[in-house]
Design a protein that fits this description.
The complex is a heterotrimer of chains A (652), B (178) and C (163). With 652 residues, chain A is an alpha+beta fold. Chain A has helices spanning 2-29, 33-37, 39-62, 69-74, 81-86, 92-113, 119-143, 168-197, 202-233, 244-269, 273-296, 309-333, 348-378, 388-411, 419-444, 450-472, 480-486, 489-514, 617-636, and strands at 516-522, 527-530, 533-544, 548-559, 562-567, 570-574, 580-583, 585-588, 592-601, 607-615. Among the domains of chain A are: 1-161, no CATH class; 518-616, no CATH class. Chain A contains 19 helices and ten strands. The chains are: A alpha+beta (652), B alpha/beta (178), C mainly alpha (163). At the A-C interface, helix 9, helix 10, helix 13, helix 14 and strand 1 of A face helix 1, helix 2, helix 5 and helix 6 of C.
Chain lengths: 652, 178, 163
């Protein structure tokens, strides 16, 4: 009966979310305190029942209940338990349930940790999240129930999970990513509540900011993990493919990045309010758009779900309701929010605004490139493709321009800076970056290389301008430690995140320019030299995994004749579907990866082997981790940690 | 006026939503042939059944024909075989086989076992004619007019319904001439 | 039920050529040709696959196209000739870098246009705010005084207790 309990719990959750969507918000508009106070218990109940439903599906997976269609299609009795459990979100229905779980989880968290929030604001925020939850839970129940059964006869064993997904990456990547996607619903709900109440003061920004930062950090982490996963799992050695599904996660991240900064200005200076609201609406809308793109089948992607136009239509309706509704509300109510202060032409406000433009244009570029084939096709103009060469050509220059402005922004103060003060702070890092950028390709590479110069200079510029600014803080300090403690955590957060951008940029520059790759036909005993490393192929043997058989090659890597590592890439054949899979083996280190993938056996007993030398590839993800960490550090700032009893600030 | 500007995001969203909605009814994987309204590529290849006989475009120009790309390694080709036989039996249009990247013995055996709907078969062992034709997987079916111009391509299994659609296209030519 | 079977079948079909990376071995007489080979294979889309270039794809057609590029390179063809050859047969679809033509003006020049527009709007905003600022209209703190007091009060009473 267990799956039926799951389905039933989901129905109860839907009922609760409908009530949550209606009652508290109505209470807020009629100043009915009792109705507003329903928000919290409803949020808790909604979460509880989706959680029960999720547990039921988990139980069905762990106990190999193949009478459940979804389990039968995405699992198999031979699969190791950790993959059985992560297979819960290995397909459309289950991942949607995970989405609903995280959404109701965020709703619950907001209700739990927002004691400082006035009741009417909390009621509105939770109701808006209830509206979103209503949409998603009904989507689950109407088109995509994971609890449908094969009855009376059901398969003896499951069809197995796609072998690519039987990996650690599946365990961590989707939950992280969804935490980010769905997390933006909190910022969205705060924006709608602000529009409805017409109240958008610094206190509002102070409430909305931590939630936004956390969501942004999760999304960044999710993208980073996804990139790392694709790198080691697909066997191609690439780390970003500009695939529609990747783009779908990048767009909300870019807009979210703009939002995080715009919110900072709104909190500190009471400016850009209307813009902040719009960004909050767009960040979440782009998350929804991503869901649409992945699940509707309008675009082809390497990792889209089995798609279905009916589901696509449902999400499109959800998107039209949330986005159409919120943007209408925005157009009507935004004139009510007024910015409170002005600033000089050279001020941090201005730099933030410029960076916001860059980030937004970057997001629009990704959107344009992703949807352009669809646009052309819908107009009956035929089929075209837009891929990595386009994005590299258009996206990268804007990214460079933004990074330059980014370095300036940290040296400029709120309200006003004099050009002289800014130049005084910046000339040293500027000279330093340019000189190092010039020298780097000559020392590290084989001579001057314009792209490396540009990439390294910009990366160093981003990092050194932050560090210089940091050191400058100590100029007049009596004691370094007391000054260190004095600086707010949000400042450290900013610093770490900006350094993260620089670190990622170093990684991108070097791995794009100095990677080496060879596809070789190798017989036992053959040696190939790549970037001063000697790869010796020592033959293959058969190994047996839990649910697969594999040819495992032994490749010894030496540097200057001295063995440094033995790599064992595999070519796996999974038992159930007979699916072949390349499992690369990587020797990872901070400054370079050695990456080996095994291809096909060739006629004469030799094997096709692909070997990569990838310098600084780890820096890509290290930077991503630093950015996310920076976002979280900011949240830890003590000014966001008020968990007191409610105290109504006087109206603004 | 500035108030009206605030409606721009909403407007942009509606444009976007319209295209997304249109997108739902488009199959992004359906790829039209680049050779539509262009002449069938020139070739000289051996016949499948008579290895000594060299075939070329001249062997089928002069009347509308179907060119069917097939191979024994392609399971969907087996599915559509029935339909091809029916079309051939009804003598509605000559069908030319393009045996694509296959082994001769297996292909001959296939025709013997399943029946032969083809007037003759072009044996494209290397897949070079297939490449010139823009074939990206079997089965594919091309409709040529009497001048040997490619008018339509169907990718995947040719069902009875697909065949009815093709027949409509051919009928259209007939009435256009009258 | 039938639908499910078809989907499962499709998945199975897809999986058979989706999962293994394409690795093959061409012997180039000239490293410059090898570089161009990789570049071309990177920029051309496999017509059959989900969304992969022909370098990464292991589909039959991708292998054929790689071999064709290899042959054409060895026959001394230049990059344009090779790309034209592919487009003639498979259409613009195979180009991951779309050609600049009226159809793609928006795609190629759109981002620059948006950037100019965006920076233009920012310039207008800066001008008006700077004017306000120079006139000294900036005396409102971002928190109203009472709010600032309320918040500060909260911080003071609570920061000692730690939650």
């Amino acid at each position: 009966m267990n799956p039926e309990i799951g389905g039933f719990a989901l129905i109860i959750a839907l009922f609760l979310s409908v009530v949550l969507a209606l009652i508290p918000i109505y209470g807020a508009s009629t100043a009915n305190e009792m109705w507003m106070s329903y928000a919290k218990p409803l949020a808790a109940g909604q979460f509880l029942f989706v959680f029960i439903s999720f547990i039921c599906l988990g139980y069905a997976f762990s106990h190999d209940d193949f009478s459940v269609v979804y389990v039968a299609q995405h699992s198999n009795s031979q699969m190791p338990i950790q993959f059985k459990l992560s297979a819960i979100w290995g397909g459309h229905e289950g991942s949607l349930l995970l989405w609903a779980l995280i959404l109701t989880g965020w709703t619950f968290a907001v209700s739990r940790f927002s004691k400082a929030l006035p009741l009417d604001m909390l009621a509105r925020v939770l109701s808006v999240m209830g509206i979103v939850a209503t949409g998603f839970i009904s989507f689950l129940l109407i088109t995509s129930s994971p609890f449908a059964r094969y009855l009376p006869r059901y398969p003896v064993d499951g069809a197995d999970l796609n072998p690519l997904l039987q990996d650690f990456g599946l365990i961590v990547h989707p939950p992280m990513l969804y935490m980010g996607y769905v997390g933006f619903s909190v910022a969205f709900a705060f924006a709608i509540a602000a529009l409805l109440s017409g109240r958008m003061d610094a206190a509002w920004a102070r409430w909305a900011r931590p939630w936004t930062n956390i969501a942004w950090a999760f999304l960044g982490m999710g993208i980073t993990l996804g990139s790392w996963w694709a790198y080691y799992e697909l066997g191609w050695g690439g780390w970003w493919f500009w695939d529609p599904v990747e783009n779908a996660s990048l767009m909300p991240w870019l807009v979210g990045t703009a939002l995080v900064h715009s919110l900072a200005a709104t909190e500190k200076r009471g400016v850009f309010k209307s813009w902040t609201l719009l960004l909050a609406i767009f960040a979440f809308s782009l998350s929804l758009l991503g869901t649409f793109l992945v699940r509707s089948g309008v675009l082809t992607s390497v990792h889209a779900f089995a798609s279905d136009p009916e589901r696509g239509f449902f999400i499109l309706m959800l998107l039209a309701l949330t986005m159409g509704g919120s943007l209408t509300l925005y157009a009507l109510k935004a004139p009510n929010v007024k910015s409170e202060s002005s600033f000089s032409w050279l001020s941090r406000e201005v730099l933030l605004l410029i960076n916001n433009v860059f980030l937004t244009v970057m997001a629009v570029t990704v959107l344009l490139g992703t949807l352009y084939p669809l646009l052309i096709d819908a107009l009956g103009q035929g089929k075209i493709s837009v891929g990595p060469p386009y994005f590299n050509a258009v996206f990268v220059p804007i990214m460079c321009a933004m990074s330059i402005a980014m370095g300036v922004s940290v040296a400029v103060r709120w309200r006003e800076s004099t050009p002289k003060a800014v130049l005084d702070k910046l000339w040293k890092p500027a000279v330093f970056s340019i000189i190092c950028g010039l020298l780097f390709p000559m020392i590290y590479g084989n001579g001057f290389e314009a792209r490396v110069f540009l990439g390294i200079s910009i990366s160093l510029w981003v990092m050194s301008s932050v560090v210089t600014e940091f050191i400058g803080k100590f100029r007049n300090a009596q004691s370094i430690t007391s000054r260190l403690k004095q600086l707010p955590l949000s400042y450290y957060g900013m610093m770490v995140a900006h350094i993260g951008v620089g670190v990622t940029a170093v990684g991108i520059t070097l791995v794009s320019n100095y990677s080496e790759e060879r596809d070789m036909r190798m017989q036992t005993g053959d040696t190939v030299e790549i970037a001063d490393y000697q790869f010796t192929f020592q033959g293959t043997h058969v190994v047996k995994g839990a649910n697969y058989m594999a040819d495992q090659a032994t490749i010894v890597v030496a540097e200057d004749g001295e063995t440094i590592v033995t790599l064992r890439p595999e070519k796996r054949r999974y038992n159930v579907k007979n699916a072949m899979m390349t499992e690369a083996d990587i020797d990872a280190s901070l400054f370079r990866d050695l990456y080996v993938a095994l291809g096909e056996p060739l006629e004469d007993g030799s094997w096709a082997v692909r070997m990569h030398y990838k310098p600084y590839v780890r820096w890509l993800w290290l930077g991503g981790i630093l950015m996310a960490l920076g976002g979280l550090l900011t949240v830890a700032d003590k000014r966001y940690r008020q968990r007191s009893a409610r105290q109504e600030p006087t109206n603004a | 006026m500035p108030r009206l500007l605030l409606f721009i995001p909403l407007l942009l969203f509606f444009v976007l939503a319209f295209f997304l909605w249109k997108g739902l009814s488009i199959d992004p994987r359906e790829l039209p042939s680049a050779l539509i309204d262009k002449p069938f590529p020139e070739f000289t290849l051996a016949s499948l059944q008579q290895p000594e006989r060299q075939l070329s475009k001249q062997d089928f120009i002069g009347q509308p024909v179907l060119v069917n790309v097939w191979a024994t390694w392609c399971p969907s080709c087996r599915q559509e075989h029935e339909q091809l036989l029916m079309t051939a039996q009804a003598d509605e249009i000559p069908i030319i086989g393009l045996n694509y990247k296959d082994e001769r013995d297996m292909a001959l055996q296939w025709l013997q076992q399943l029946g032969n709907p083809y007037q003759f078969n072009i044996y494209d062992e290397q897949g070079m004619l297939g490449l010139n034709l823009g074939v990206y997987g079997a089965p594919e079916t091309y409709l040529l007019d009497a001048q040997g111009i490619v008018r339509h391509r169907h990718v995947g299994v040719l069902t009875t319904q697909d065949w009815q659609e093709l027949k409509q296209i051919i009928k259209g030519w007939g009435s256009a001439k009258n | 039920m039938l639908k499910i079977n078809i989907i499962a079948g499709l998945l199975m079909l897809l999986s058979s050529f989706m999962l293994s990376a394409a690795i093959d071995v061409y012997k180039f007489d000239d490293p410059e040709k090898e570089k161009r080979f990789h570049q071309l294979a990177f920029e051309l889309r496999c017509p059959k696959c989900q969304n992969q270039n022909i370098a990464d794809s292991n589909a039959e057609i991708a292998q054929d196209l790689r071999t064709k590029i290899f042959q054409m390179l060895n026959a001394g063809k230049n990059d344009n000739e090779i790309v034209d050859y592919m487009v003639e047969r498979y259409g613009d679809f195979v180009l991951y870098e779309p050609r600049v033509n009226p159809q793609t003006y928006l795609l190629w020049y759109g981002p620059a246009l948006f950037l100019v527009l965006g920076l233009g709007v920012v310039a207008l905003i800066i001008r008006s705010r700077n004017k306000q600022y120079q006139q000294g209209n900036d005396h409102q703190p971002s928190l109203s005084n009472s709010e600032a007091k309320a918040l500060d009060g909260l911080l003071k009473t609570k920061s000692g207790k730690k939650q």
